[in-house]
Amino acid sequence: MIVSDMLAQNARLYPEETALIELRPSKNFHNAITWREFDARANQAANALIEMGVRKGDKVMHWMTNSVEWLEAYFGILRTGAWAVPLNFRFTSQDLKYCADIAEARTLVLGEEFTERVSSIRNELPIDRYIFVGEVPPKGMLSFGSIVEASSSEPPRVKFGPDDECALYFTSGTTGAPKPILLTQKNLECAAITENRNHRQTHDDNFILIPPLYHTGAKMHWFGNLIVGGKGTILAEFSPKNLLEAVHREKGTIAFLLVPWAQDVLTALEQGDLRLEDYDLGCWRLMHIGAQPVPPSLVRSWKQWFPSMQYDTNFGLSESAGPGCVHLGIENEHKVGAIGKPGYNWQARIVDDSGRDVPRGQVGELVVKGDGVMKEYYKNPGLTAKTIRDGWLFTGDMGRIDEDDFIWLVDRKKDVIITGGENIYPVEVENILRSHPRVNDAAVIGRPDKRLGEIVLAVIDPKPGVTLIEDEINAFCELHLPRYKRPRCVVFDKVPRNPTGKIEKPKLRQKYGGSLFESP
Q1: β-pairing, 453-462 with 439-449?
Q2: Which of 300, 311, 306, 229 is nearest to 269 (CA)?
Q3: Nearest Cα to 520, choosing from 461, 479, 474?
Q4: Regarding the domain delimited by 3-397, which CATH topology (the fold level of the hierarchy) does it fall under?
């Protein structure tokens, strides 16, 4: 069943039950809609788009921050048969032009936060329909609320099947220019089924939605609730306090967090800024993390504060229609550190550069296969052929399989540091550094070196209110790392992460990868 039909089914089965809640604590804003209302609004959005000329196969760009309207617009676009093209809310005007040119989009749905970025290059864009989500639309833009209210709530008469293209996602751009990933209806359906089976979601679950909806991760996790009519709570403003209050007041049962957010919660608890006894959190059954390597030390600390809560690690990528192609499994907390085993309806292998399986325990590239594998990199057949071979998606992540068939990632293929002929995987060093009791975050990159080729440079972000010096980090590394893996340079700075929590290593390489430091 395609995802827009899942919404329609929920409207039939649970018409007056709450589907979505939106929370904006700073504005004391609380909004809730039922499944019947959600379904009707999606139909109205679809019919409004169709009435203004949007047709099956067109591209509708979608630039908004998290809200109920975000999902109404998204499902409305899907129901026209057009491709939804969600955009990163941190994109610049030039990023918008880059994406619009590739997609050849003629329609843009945008929130008021983005009007200035749009206006500055509006005459350079191929777009001729602007739909504004907000109070007063700028000149030449239509009001989303007005066109939706004026349109029919009957289902549009557009036919499409599981193999039809429906969404164009641009990667976050941490490795260069964002790549356009074309997904089908079957890809989105696979995400919903996999997520539901991996995390055992039921109609009684309430999923706390925090990461940006433009990314496949957060939304596809919530799809596991959608398929069974479980509600979702959009927490539009994250803070540790806001999270605990949302779980407490809305009876949240599942929350997907990024590593920095989980660390923020732990820091707030450790420093006494939050007290668990002030909240009723007995309903919160599962916390899971993905989108980046998860330090085992963080999970161990989390379990000390929340001993009865389930935990899972997720692995996925936009090219696999989001998370879940590999996951740890809530029954496998004893293997924290591994990303786990293939998710429901997925296969996984570790291969060499020729695509042959490597021996157990050896490092190779992780490849996955399943119904979630993207159709293609849009307009890039060469990169598509390199990335998808015989149905296998080559992820670019390096890993190994242990004696119990669990997969452990060691790093991104392109991030491997080669020093004096030895391969160093930054994730391993980063996990050690983050286990230091006074380190909040850490990132490791290679810096060019005339003698060794590259040396290890560590960027350390201390916990709030503490002081760290390089000698302390060096002494800690001497205890936990062999000499060739130890950082030769240590700098203290914030670790830049994108909205999905991934370390933006190109920024660090640009800032610290040159000749700023002399090799020891």
Answers
A1: antiparallel
A2: 306
A3: 474
A4: Rossmann fold (3.40.50)
User: Residue 380, CB half-sphere, CA atoms under 13 Å: how many?
Assistant: 16
pLDDT at 175: 45
Secondary structure of residue 345 in the 3-state scheme: coil
CB-based burial label for 161 (10 Å; 0-12, 13-18, 19+):
exposed
Which residue type sits at 103?
A
Question: Are β-strands 18-24 and 29-34 bridged in parallel, bridged antiparallel, or unpaired?
Answer: antiparallel
CB 352 within 8 A of CB 358: yes
Task: Write the pLDDT tens digit of every residue in 119-170.
Answer: 999 999 999 999 999 999 999 999 999 999 999 999 999 999 999 999 999 9
Question: What are the structural domain ranges in the chain?
Answer: 3-397, 418-512
CATH superfamily of 418-512: ANL, C-terminal domain (3.30.300.30)
- Three-state secondary structure call for residue 296: helix
Q: Which residue has the tokens 């040119």?
A: 101
The 10s digit of each residue's pLDDT in 392-408 is 999 988 899 999 999 99
The secondary structure of 241-272, three-state, reads HHHHHHHHHHCCCEEEECHHHHHHHHHHHHCC
DSSP state, 358?
A: P
Neighbours of 385 (CB within 10 A): 11
Rounded Cα–Cα distance for residues 228 and 322 (Å): 19
Question: Residue 453: enclosing H or E segment and its boundaries?
Answer: strand 453-462
